[in-house]
Amino acid sequence: MFAAWELGIGTCWVNYFSNSKLDKAFGFPDNLKSVLIMPMGYPAVDSDPIPMHFCCKALEETVRFI
């Protein structure tokens, strides 16, 4: 993603999809499994991330130390 950004290409990490359907659609053999997809493209000059992009939960809300 960083390398793409250095070239002016925007990306988006996507992991909310059916891995098995994607694997079938792309004809992946059984020994390969998709983990995520990353659409890439040139962002519009006036584009900005959505406001929630900059919001983070407190570490204590997302991590449990055991």
Structural write-up:
With 66 residues, the protein is an alpha+beta fold. It has one domain. A two-stranded antiparallel sheet has the order 1-2.
Q: Structural class, from secondary structure content?
A: alpha+beta
What is the terminal-to-terminal distance? 32 Å
Q: How would you sum up the major sheet?
A: 2 strands, antiparallel
- In sequence order, what are the helices and strands, one letter per element? HEHEH
Count, helices: 3
Overall domain count: 1
The side-by-side strand order for the widest beta sheet comes to 1-2
Fraction in beta strands? 5-15%
Q: What's the mean pLDDT score?
A: 90
Number of strands: 2
Low confidence ranges? none
Principal-axes shape call:
flat
Helical fraction equals 10-25%
Radius of gyration equals 17 Å
What order do the helices and strands come in, and which of them pair?
Elements: H1 2-6, E1 10-11, H2 19-25, E2 40-41, H3 59-62
Antiparallel strand pairs: 1-2
What would the keywords be for this entry?
two-stranded antiparallel sheet, single chain, 66 residues, 24% helix, alpha+beta, 6% strand
Question: What is the compact description of this entry?
Answer:
By secondary structure, this protein is of the alpha+beta class. The chain has 3 helices and 2 strands; from the N terminus they run H-E-H-E-H. It has a two-stranded antiparallel ribbon.
